[in-house]
Design a protein that fits this description.
The protein is mostly beta strands and 262 residues long. The chain contains three helices and 18 strands. The N terminus is likely disordered.
Length: 262
């Protein structure tokens, strides 16, 4: 007989094998996370005021858009039908309201991914959900500097917020960005990772500490293009995805290559 190892999944999507299990202390594990939200931004109609969620029930409302100019050319290199991207002109109050994506509340794992192109090298382009102006929440993007930022924050103030960044001077071209969070890991660099075009970036965390869970922001909307107070976006966003697990680096690379990862 020929025996093959059986792959099993642990919480957060970590892989292991049956031969590695401790059968005397086995516990029930959560199933692997799934694609919980996927906004393609391919509607393209001047009369459209909603962007559909192709994976779940989080259809987004287009707030204060000029529908005639909202739909633009898509991100290049995507290997499936992708006729449009969504354009943001920096006007106050223009964003997509996707409602309370509940899987991000008090969570230990998530992955967010999107194709993004800033209007200029230093313009802002953001998404996430936050509890007002104090910075508590989950956000990523650029904030009018040549840096890309990601935040997972349960409390206010330096030392309490998982706040990392890397230098990103060519953000005015199309790039694929992905944020992977796994609160079960130890150390900032293991809990919070950012990939640009499929390549993991080195984050500067300063004196911050990435928490082991996201904040519980029940009834707070996930916003694309309008998070963190007045940081409204200028540029283009396409193919936004949220997963309820920490994707593997190979899966991030596949997304960045324009493939569809469920």
């Amino acid at each position: 007989y020929q025996y093959k190892p059986v792959v099993v999944y642990q919480p957060g999507g970590q892989r292991g094998y049956m031969r590695d299990l401790d059968f005397e202390n086995i516990e029930e594990a959560d199933p692997p996370g799934v694609l919980i939200a996927y906004w393609k931004f391919d509607e393209g109609s001047p009369e459209e005021s909603t962007v559909g969620d192709s994976a779940g029930s989080y259809d987004g409302s287009m707030i204060n858009f000029n529908q005639q100019s909202a739909w633009q050319a898509p991100a290049p290199g995507i290997q499936f039908t992708n006729p449009y991207s969504l354009s943001f002109d920096g006007n106050e109050g223009r964003y997509v309201d996707a409602g309370d994506v509940t899987e991000l509340n008090d969570a230990q794992y998530f992955t967010m991914a999107a194709w993004m192109k800033r209007g200029t090298a230093n313009s802002g382009l953001v998404m996430g959900k936050t509890g007002g102006t104090d910075g508590v929440g989950v956000t990523f993007g650029s904030f009018n500097t040549p840096y890309f930022y990601v935040r997972v924050a349960n409390e206010i103030g330096i030392g309490n917020a998982g706040y990392g960044s890397f230098y990103d001077p060519d953000g005015d071209a199309w790039h694929h960005y992905a944020v992977v969070y796994d609160g079960t890991q130890t150390g900032n660099e293991n809990r919070l990772k950012v990939y640009k075009d499929g390549v993991q970036q080195t984050l500067d965390f300063e004196e911050n500490t990435v928490p082991d869970r996201t904040p519980d922001l029940t009834d707070t909307s996930f916003e694309i293009g309008g998070s963190l107070g007045e940081n409204y976006s200028t540029g283009f966003i396409d193919d936004v995805r949220i997963y309820s697990r920490a994707l593997f680096s190979s899966e991030i690379a596949s997304l960045a290559a324009g493939n569809d990862v469920q």
